[in-house]
């Protein structure tokens, strides 16, 4: 299902031969309309991959017929030759679909700094186009073809009366999924304007993908693309569309957290009582990024002092005398001082809830994160992964 | 030698019984004058340990007779009781030295959130005072007593004509030594004003301790204290004193890098061609902190794409088309594109030099860092270390 759950979409996922392993590595998602409304959010990294540079141009029109996504190579730091490869890929997809290259976005993920084999890629686009359909299997095949170190394909659907939203994603970095490249395609058969689609997408991303650890650390390739076919005839409000997009994006973000590289703990850092929502996000992110907090999580150690120290160096308003820290429901620090026996907090399970109450205002936010484990070091120290 | 190399100083390091292991855990450094000029740099963490709060008050006078330093407990997040412990420690030292409590600074390091056993601490101060002397062994004993996960005592001396600077430090965190608490005492027998001492100390810290990975991530206890006895009668200029302090502080920072938790690689991130020195520091820090870069270092992988991605999300001016990356002398990326065979860069040794040339302006800076290894995860996931 996923991206083909909404009416008007077809998808495919095939093995083009970009991955040495021979596993699926090329996906195609096509919007058959009647409308081809589109919006996207791209990495803010100043070093942008060729497919990002290409797709940013394409998306200025607010319309899109298709997205080609490949794993097995990021096509980043590849210069003019890399850009020509992205362009040629769009031309090839446009040719087989009978549209213009300006209607085709490109997303890539994999090693930075290597050219993609253009012939292999273009042959793969033809092969994918030949297997396009709207069956549930095609959505799964597309989700599977964009996996890198992901261990499971990630899909989600939100069904509304008469219309729906579907989505696929990949991304398995731990510290910041975006760094390991996060690619996502969201589809809907709602009939909405490009402005409504853009607004709903940005609002959804802000509280889902952007709350999975850190958005300050972005890869060269991160891309989230939304396409609306209008095939349902339903015209939800921007609020209704935002809620549905958020539901799908939050599900996909949680799936990425659960499948993060080397994860043994899934942690939610919930900050309340901040001076503002921004402050709450800043404190939660700082705690979530702190390597000493992450290794303590791996060790099932309720070391709240490290959490207090991380909160203290976050660039946000904080009063050390009104700082409360609760781990898995056990209050360990009240007013900045130890509040009982830390061994009462049981971190032996896979899920950990860290609550940091600042006691200043009404701002609150949650960041999803993971621990820092041996498996993370192992996976990321492998040669040029 | 170290802190007792300059004339006018005595030191001691003893086992007070704060550490369960029975290892040395309390140091005392005394300035016998004739002058008692002092300056200090403290953590910018908003959650400050009790000894920091105490010492900040003491240092407002610009004079200091002695510093008591203990490992085995940070006395942070300990509320009024913890502050009273710091105060009582200063009172005890003042009593046995025949000075005022306002002349005694306190530094602590260890677990956050636990009260220090006050009686044990005060008895330790008496014991340390009884063994104070100016022998080379006493400097080593003081350096040894402040070790936590450090594996070697860290000392340095800079000798000038007629005067000298000495120093000791501890700190063994990898991501940011400051997070694992960095304590340092620098001494000199130069005759200088408090303003000169403060200026030289801040200038030295800025290019040494602050360039060892990250200063944005600070512990609750980080403290660097400088004391001048005037015993040499020599009156170096602020520039001369800055150079000598910088020499000692850079040596101590390099020793901390070499002894960082779980380190298998010592990496220098050198950024040149930045729009400003601040931009160079920002880019170098961002690369140094990036977990994907750090794990690649551990894996001896010349994965320059991760370095390019980290540079690209640093909050600094950057032109992806003028980005050069060189690892251990081998140019791997020129103008943002692969520049040859990455396997030519040999990272099998313990020292790695990463050069990032931005091609924009004349700003440059170096940050010292380390890899992210299994040993780091092991050491920091141990229960409440």
TrEMBL record, chains A, B:
Site (described: Involved in the stabilization of negative charge on the oxyanion by the formation of the oxyanion hole): 109-110
Chain positions recorded as substrate binding sites: 148, 170, 181, 261, 380, 385
EC number: 2.3.1.35, 2.3.1.1
Marked site: Cleavage: 180-181
Pathway info: Amino-acid biosynthesis; L-arginine biosynthesis; L-ornithine and N-acetyl-L-glutamate from L-glutamate and N(2)-acetyl-L-ornithine (cyclic): step 1/1; Amino-acid biosynthesis; L-arginine biosynthesis; N(2)-acetyl-L-ornithine from L-glutamate: step 1/4
UniProt keyword annotation of Amino-acid biosynthesis present: yes
A biological process term (GO) from this entry: L-arginine biosynthetic process
Single GO cellular component term: cytoplasm
GO molecular function, one term: L-glutamate N-acetyltransferase activity, acting on acetyl-L-ornithine as donor
UniProt keyword list: Acyltransferase, Amino-acid biosynthesis, Arginine biosynthesis, Autocatalytic cleavage, Cytoplasm, Multifunctional enzyme, Transferase
Catalytic residues (UniProt): 181
Cellular location(s): Cytoplasm
Catalytic activity: L-glutamate + acetyl-CoA = N-acetyl-L-glutamate + CoA + H(+); N(2)-acetyl-L-ornithine + L-glutamate = N-acetyl-L-glutamate + L-ornithine
InterPro entries: Arg_biosynth_ArgJ (IPR002813), ArgJ-like_dom_sf (IPR016117), ArgJ_beta_C (IPR042195)
Domain of life the protein comes from: Bacteria
UniProt key word Amino-acid biosynthesis: yes
NCBIfam families assigned to the protein according to its UniProt record, in alphabetical order: ArgJ, PRK05388.1
Similarity section: Belongs to the ArgJ family.
Subunit: Heterotetramer of two alpha and two beta chains.
Role according to the record: Catalyzes two activities which are involved in the cyclic version of arginine biosynthesis: the synthesis of N-acetylglutamate from glutamate and acetyl-CoA as the acetyl donor, and of ornithine by transacetylation between N(2)-acetylornithine and glutamate.
Official protein name in the record: Arginine biosynthesis bifunctional protein ArgJ
